[in-house]
Each structure stands twice: as C-alpha cells, then as structure tokens.
Design goal:
The chain is an all-alpha fold and about 180 residues long. About 65% of the residues lie in helices and about 0% in strands. It contains 9 helices and no strands. The protein has helices at about 15-20, 25-40, 45-60, 65-75, 80-90, 100-110, 120-125, 130-155, 165-175. The longest helix is centred in the C-terminal third of the chain and has 23 residues, at about 130-155. The two termini are about 20 Å apart. About 40% of the residues are buried.
C-alpha cells in the first residue's frame, strides 16, 4: 500500500499510475512531458530514449519505473530485453553504438548529480556524433526520471506483481502513447 490513500486499486494502477490519477492536475502535464521526451519526433529512437529512462531508473533502484521502461524499451528495440539487460548489467560491453554509450554515460552522471556531467563527457558524445538536441534531451530524460523515480518511491507505491503486466503496458505505450495512461 502507498503511504497515502490514492483512491485507486493499486493492483490495477501500480507505480506512478496511482499518483497520476490521484492528482490529474499534475499528472496531465507529467504525462505530456514523458510523451514529448520519449515518443515525440527526435533523432534518437523511442526505444533508445526508453532505454535511457530504464537505465536511470535502474541506477535509482526504482523497481516500477525500471521494470516498466525496460519493457517499453525492449518492445521498441530489435534486440529486445536481451539488449536492455546487457546495457543495465554492463554499459561498457553492451552491444550498442558508441554514441548511445556516451549518452548513457551522461545520463548516469545526471543520476548522481547534474554537476557530475563534464565538458569532457559532452565532447565525447559530440565526437561520436551526438547533437546538442540529443545531449540536451538525454540530460532532461535522466533528470525527469530521477524525479519520477523519487515520486513513485517517495509515495511508497507498489510495482506490478505480475511481469506480464509490463508487457501488456508496453503494447499500450507503443500503440497509444503516454497521454492515455490513466
């Protein structure tokens, strides 16, 4: 049970979904932000952006967000959950592009503190072909997911008990998006 009464069945609306429903005045703008960051037009694919969210959420030990965004990334990456698991287990040896690896290093630095991002990290990302938009949005995705992770865990919400729930949620995210989540 969450720390507060969200007025929902947490088995039906696990993780962030309960708080979004509890306070739609804030939930709507948060969902719009996620829709733009993770699904809007962008040089990085939606799967790559979901991978950034999953990576940061895993580093923050947020079970719900890591499980959800790992599933959403896997559903949109050709290599599926195998790649997501490889990235989360060992970024240095994961079979991803050098550009994505440098962006994930930036995201990992943001997860610790925004001040951990160095000009050398940004230069390395640029050297691998990352654009200012990709660098900007990597930082914003990482920062946003630090907030979302703390929102979910700070309210003590519960992750979905059944791993199949995340696969079903992936279908909704891929086909409908975030605007209709709750």
């Amino acid at each position: 049970m969450a720390h507060i009464d969200l007025g929902v069945d947490e088995t039906e609306l696990p993780g962030i979904r309960g708080p979004l429903r509890f306070r739609p005045e804030t939930g709507g703008p948060l969902l719009e932000l996620v829709e733009v960051l993770l699904r809007g037009p962008h040089p990085l694919s939606p799967g790559e952006r979901e991978l950034i969210a999953a990576y940061v959420s895993g580093r923050n030990e947020c079970t719900y967000c890591c499980s959800a965004h790992s599933a959403y990334a896997a559903a949109q990456l050709d290599e599926g959950m195998t790649l997501v698991d490889q990235v989360r287990a060992d970024l240095d040896s994961a079979p991803i592009s050098a550009k994505l690896r440098t962006l994930l290093r930036i995201a990992g630095a943001v997860q610790v503190s925004g001040r951990e991002v160095t000009s050398e990290m940004v230069a390395a990302a640029r050297a691998e072909g990352a654009t200012d938009l990709e660098i900007h949005d990597t930082v914003l995705i990482a920062a946003a997911f630090c907030m979302f992770n703390r929102y979910v865990d700070g309210l003590g919400t519960q992750p979905a008990a059944d791993p199949l729930w995340y696969a079903q949620a992936s279908d909704r995210i891929v086909n409908i998006g975030y605007r209709q989540v709750v």
